[in-house]
Amino acid sequence: MPEPKEVIEARENTNDKEYYRKLVKTDPLLIEWANDEIRDDKEIMLEAVKVDGGALEFASSRLKDDKDVLLESVKQAGWTACYASDRLKADKDVMMAAAHVDGQVLYYASEELRDDKDMVIAAVSQKAIILKYASLRLRKDKDVAIAALSQSKKCLEYIDSELQKDEDIQKILNPES
């Protein structure tokens, strides 16, 4: 199957900064074909991730460690926190912004953030089953359990067994009783 016209054109213009400055506003994922210098251009990458956070995959390592670029990307597509540098996977601002869009990001968060109550509540409120990546300490926390169970009861197996017996937890699990 022949390559689409857009891909051929992007490959032919791999060194043309002005071409990519315009292109990312409509086809941001074609930044993949740009040269390293263009993929390290903060202004161009910011434009790309504003349209499609997934363009972050093609950013330079330096820009995957740039808080401004990451915040724009995760606001558009929370899951793109997976491309963040280790430093930004430990940044509460970045990971909280991502968690409000996609709770799955708790999987990529640093150990410290997996033990941060605000972060875990934000994540499980979006995707309860991600509770399995929270610290053991927070899996015993009643507020975290309520936030997760309110989103989905499928996370029950990740809640501390003693906490499962709690009266308020039981009311969520068995609302008719």
Textual characterization of the structure:
By secondary structure, this protein is mainly α. 49% of the residues lie in helices and 0% in strands. It starts with a helix and ends with a helix.
List keywords for this structure.
elongated, mainly alpha
How would you summarize what this structure contains?
By secondary structure, this protein is mainly α.
List the helices and strands and how they pair.
Layout: H1 5-12, H2 17-23, H3 36-39, H4 42-51, H5 67-76, H6 86-89, H7 92-99, H8 111-114, H9 117-126, H10 142-151, H11 161-164, H12 167-173
Helix pairs in contact: 4-5, 5-7, 7-9, 9-10, 10-12
Rg result = 20 Å
Number of strands: 0
Distance between the termini: 61 Å
Low-confidence stretches: none
Estimate what percentage of residues fall within beta strands. Answer: under 5%
Number of domains: 2
